[in-house]
Write a structure and sequence with these properties.
This protein is an alpha/beta fold and about 270 residues long. The protein has a single domain (about 5-265), classed as Rossmann fold. The protein has nine helices and seven strands. The longest helix is centred in the N-terminal third of the chain and has 15 residues, at about 65-80.
């Protein structure tokens, strides 16, 4: 059991929608204006994973939880804030969490949106060169006591994954909010130590998903090339695939919201 920081937008009487961020990402990556657009028709819930934002943090390099706990956290929020059932939207690692909820906790899911994520399994293309380079030669860690240096670092680690759509000023604005709110930004790196430390893989059971599903994927995603999004949409019965030209491995940028928000609400 843990205590998480969350924020809501819109009327609690509207259908609830839970936004799940990616690895090492707080709720700040779901920008307020994006949430407000969804909140015109939905009760929007965004939250800080453990080790991000104002949720509890463990010492850097020493996470006291597993990948399964991150799934349980999201399920707990659905129960506590959304009345037990919600439209679940996840990006990257959050998309993996959303898949696990849909497969292993199907009664909690009214609809499903999976962004920049993958079903896993054999036969899918590996990351593009720029993503492999970013992992093999990572950006040097900043002085974590210097907020400006940390903001610069957060912007630079996003750059190689963002595809042709990279709004540097918007990315910097998000990074400033992340740094201003976080209890310990450095602890967010603990996610990389648990991201593969989960229980049963939901991938082989995605054919069991029976809720309306939208798969959103960027044509320039260097971590999960487009074939991952295509395979994910094929794996889930009736899923719709929305390919966004120029988007990389990222939360949908502002330039896509006029397409993305209506597509999510259409579910």
């Amino acid at each position: 059991m843990t205590t998480l920081c969350f924020e809501t937008f819109g009327s609690p009487a509207a259908p609830p929608i839970l936004l799940i961020s990616g690895a090492a990402a707080s709720m700040d990556y779901w920008e307020p204006e994006f949430c407000e657009r969804l909140a015109a028709e939905r009760y929007v819930i965004r939250f800080d994973h453990r080790d991000t934002g104002r949720s509890p943090t463990d010492p850097p390099g020493k996470p006291g939880y597993t990948g399964d706990d991150l799934v349980s956290d999201a399920v707990g929020l659905i129960d506590a804030v959304a009345g037990g059932r919600a439209h679940v939207v996840g990006v990257s690692m959050g998309g993996g969490i959303a898949q696990s909820i849909a497969v292993f906790h199907p009664d909690r899911v009214a609809a499903l949106t999976l962004i920049a994520t993958s079903p896993g399994g054999d036969g899918l293309p590996p990351p593009a060169d720029r993503a492999r380079t970013a992992f093999d030669n990572p950006e040097p860690e900043p002085d974590w006591t210097d907020p400006d240096a940390v903001v610069d670092y957060l912007v630079e680690i996003e750059r190689p994954f963002a595809g042709r759509i990279f709004d540097e000023e918007a990315t910097r604005e998000v990074a400033r909010r992340v740094v201003a709110r976080a209890t310990n930004v450095q602890s967010s790196g603990n996610h990389w130590l648990v991201v593969g430390d989960a229980g049963e893989d939901p991938g082989p059971r995605l054919g069991e998903v029976r809720v309306p599903t939208l798969v959103i994927h960027g044509t320039d995603d260097p971590l999960f090339p487009p074939a991952h999004g295509e395979a994910l949409a094929r794996a889930i019965p009736g899923a719709r695939l929305l390919m966004l030209d120029g988007m990389g491995h990222q939360t949908p940028p502002r330039s896509t919201w006029d397409v993305v928000v209506p597509a999510i609400l259409d579910l």
